[in-house]
C-alpha cells in the first residue's frame, strides 16, 4: 500500500507542485464548442488537443516543474470520463430531478443557486459495478509519454476523481438501486475493485504519480454542512461516521498497490467556473482521522485564504507523510508576495515539528490541542520541512472555462511557486 513506508516519499511529490488542471487556450475552447455545435469533427478537436497539450507541457518544463500534467485538456470537468467510460453499471443522467441530490451538499447548493434550481448532469449507478477494461485516463497518459523521455514518465501527474463523488452528492438511497446493492458496503466493495483496476492499468503503462481530487472530504470541514447533515432524517450514519466510511472506501481503492506508486489526495473546497468556491472551515475537526487513517502518501491542502483556518492541524501529520501547502491562490490574478509565502511555509513547518515532539513524548501527535508553537529547534524545523512542498491552492481550470485570470497570470503564479520552493529548498526539484 502506498503509505506503509517509515519515511515520506519524494520525487514525487516535488517541492514545487501544481494541482493538475491548467487554463485551456482559446483555440481549444473554441474547437470544442465547434464540435458541440456540429461545425467540426472529433478528429479536428483531437489535433488541437494534441497541439495544446504539447504547448502546456513545454510551459511547465520552462517554469521548472517536474510533476507534469496535460492540464486536463481532454476533459470538460475535473472528473473526466472515469465513471462513464471505465465503469460498467454507471449511467449518465442529462436532466436529473432536483430530488436526486442532497440539495444542501455544498457544490449542489451553489449550483442550484446559480442555475435557478436546475441541477446539471449527473451519474448514477444502475447495475453492478465493474471495470470495462477501457480507460480514457490511460490514453491521456500514453500521449504524455510521447512528449517526455522515458526516465521522466514516473514524474507525470495524473488526476483521478474521488470514488465517493457520485455517492455523497446524491440523496440518501439514490446512489444505487436497492435491488442491485443492499447497502453501501456492497456498493463500495465493487466500486473499490473497479478503481483499483483503473490504477493497475495505469501502473502497468508506467504511471507512478496519482493525485485523487476530492472535494467531498474537504466539505466535512464545514460547520454548515455538518448541521445540514444532522438535519437530514434519511442519513443513516452520523457526519463523522460517514467521513470515516469514505476514508475506508479510499483505503480499499488503493490497497495492495505497488509500493513505488505515489498516491496523493487534494482536498478541494470547490473550484467552479469563475473562481467560485463552495465551502469554508478549518481542517481541525478532520485532521487526526485524515492524516492517521487515510493511507495516501501526500496531502495537497488549500491554504490561500483564512477560510481554510490555520496550520495547527498539521501537528497531526505522521512522519511518513507529506503535505503540499497550497498558499498561492489559483482563483485570482493578484500575485502574492514571495517573502510572505516563504514565511508561511516556515510557519507551517513549526507546527509539523511541534507535532513530532508531541508524538515522541507519547502524546499521539499534536496532543489534540491547537495552542501556540513551542521551541522546536533548528533540527526539528529542518526535518519538518523535509515533508512539505508548495503549490497553487487548487487547479486553474477544474471546469473547462477556468478561473478568473489570464494564461499569463497563471504562468506568473506557477513561476512564483517555483521561486518559493527554490528559496525554502534550494537545489531540490
Structure commentary:
There is one protein chain. Strand 6, helix 11 (287-293) and strand 7 (298-302) form a beta-alpha-beta unit. The relative contact order is 0.15. The radius of gyration is 21 Å and the shape is globular. By secondary structure, the protein is an alpha/beta fold. The strands form 2 sheets. It has a 7-stranded parallel beta sheet with strand order 1-9-8-7-6-5-4. A two-stranded antiparallel sheet has the order 2-3. It has helices spanning 26-36, 42-62, 82-85, 106-114, 136-145, 165-168, 184-204, 215-219, 223-230, 239-254, 287-293, 338-360, 377-385, 407-424; strands at residues 16-17, 87-93, 122-131, 158-161, 209-214, 262-267, 298-302, 322-328, 388-392. The model is unreliable at 366-373 (pLDDT under 50).
Amino acid at each position: 500500500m502506498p503509505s506503509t513506508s517509515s519515511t515520506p516519499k519524494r520525487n514525487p511529490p516535488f517541492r514545487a507542485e501544481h494541482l493538475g488542471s491548467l487554463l485551456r487556450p482559446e483555440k481549444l475552447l473554441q474547437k470544442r464548442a465547434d464540435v458541440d455545435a456540429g461545425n467540426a469533427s472529433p478528429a479536428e478537436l483531437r489535433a488541437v488537443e494534441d497541439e495544446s497539450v504539447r504547448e502546456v507541457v513545454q510551459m511547465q518544463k520552462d517554469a521548472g516543474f517536474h510533476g507534469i500534467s496535460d492540464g486536463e485538456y481532454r476533459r470538460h470537468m475535473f472528473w473526466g470520463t472515469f465513471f462513464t467510460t471505465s465503469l460498467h453499471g454507471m449511467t449518465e443522467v442529462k436532466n436529473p430531478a432536483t430530488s436526486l441530490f442532497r440539495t444542501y451538499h455544498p457544490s449542489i447548493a451553489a449550483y442550484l443557486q446559480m442555475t435557478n434550481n436546475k441541477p446539471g448532469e449527473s451519474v448514477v449507478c444502475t447495475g453492478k459495478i465493474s471495470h470495462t477494461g477501457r480507460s480514457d485516463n490511460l490514453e491521456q497518459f500514453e500521449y504524455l509519454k510521447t512528449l517526455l523521455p522515458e526516465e521522466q514518465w514516473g514524474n507525470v501527474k495524473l488526476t483521478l476523481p474521488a470514488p465517493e463523488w457520485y455517492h455523497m452528492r446524491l440523496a440518501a438511497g439514490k446512489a444505487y438501486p436497492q435491488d442491485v446493492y443492499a447497502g453501501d458496503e456492497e456498493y463500495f466493495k465493487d466500486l473499490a475493485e473497479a478503481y483499483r483496476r483503473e490504477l493497475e492499468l495505469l501502473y502497468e503503462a508506467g504511471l507512478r504519480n496519482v493525485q485523487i481530487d476530492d472535494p467531498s472530504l474537504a466539505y466535512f470541514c464545514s460547520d454548515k454542512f455538518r448541521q445540514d447533515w444532522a438535519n437530514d432524517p434519511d442519513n443513516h450514519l452520523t457526519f463523522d461516521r460517514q467521513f470515516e466510511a469514505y476514508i475506508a472506501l479510499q483505503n480499499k481503492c488503493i490497497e495492495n498497490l505497488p509500493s513505488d506508486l505515489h498516491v496523493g489526495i487534494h482536498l478541494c473546497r470547490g473550484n467552479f467556473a469563475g473562481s467560485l468556491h463552495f465551502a469554508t472551515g478549518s481542517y481541525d475537526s478532520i485532521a487526526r482521522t485524515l492524516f492517521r487513517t487515510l493511507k495516501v502518501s501526500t496531502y495537497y491542502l488549500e491554504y490561500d485564504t483564512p477560510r481554510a483556518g490555520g496550520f495547527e492541524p498539521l501537528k497531526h501529520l505522521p512522519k511518513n507523510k507529506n503535505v503540499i501547502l497550497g498558499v498561492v491562490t489559483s482563483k485570482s490574478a493578484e500575485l502574492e508576495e514571495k517573502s510572505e509565502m516563504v514565511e508561511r511555509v516556515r510557519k507551517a513547518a513549526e507546527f509539523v515539528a511541534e507535532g513530532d515532539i508531541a508524538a515522541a513524548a507519547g502524546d499521539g501527535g499534536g496532543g489534540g490541542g491547537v495552542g501556540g508553537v513551542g521551541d522546536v529547534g533548528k533540527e526539528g524545523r529542518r526535518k519538518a520541512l523535509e515533508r512539505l512542498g508548495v503549490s497553487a491552492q487548487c487547479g486553474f481550470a477544474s471546469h473547462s472555462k477556468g478561473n478568473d485570470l489570464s494564461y499569463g497570470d497563471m504562468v506568473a503564479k506557477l513561476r512564483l511557486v517555483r521561486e518559493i520552493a527554490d528559496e525554502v529548498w534550494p537545489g531540490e526539484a
